[in-house]
Amino acid sequence: MHIKRRAFSAARLPRQGLLADDTRAAVAGGVNAMLLPITTCTISGLQALSPEARCKTFDASADGYGRGEGFAGAALAPAQRAE
What is the full per-residue pLDDT of the chain (83 aa) written as tens digits? Predict the structure, then answer.
């Protein structure tokens, strides 16, 4: 729940700045970082991880999933300024 609030704020606060005309453009971003080894150990104990460390979604040879970290960002601007 705590993480979801932060993700919501990442887009909400820049949007508020744009709507209030406090800024001309803004950037919203988020990160998925695997910081605790206990999570991977627990999932590994459930045998949910792919031995090949690859996710093969909707493939007949799927044998688990591969965990990964990531980052995403979006540039925000009002439609009339986005061009």
Answer: 455 566 667 788 888 999 999 999 999 888 888 889 998 899 889 998 898 888 888 999 989 888 888 898 989 988 886 66
Residue 10 corresponds to which tokens in the numbers above? 């990442």
d(CA 7, CA 1): 10
- Bridge partners, residue 43, by sequence: none
Rg (CA), the chain: 19
Return all residues near 35 (Cβ < 8 A) that are at least 6 apart.
none
Give me 32's structure tokens.
Answer: 């998925």
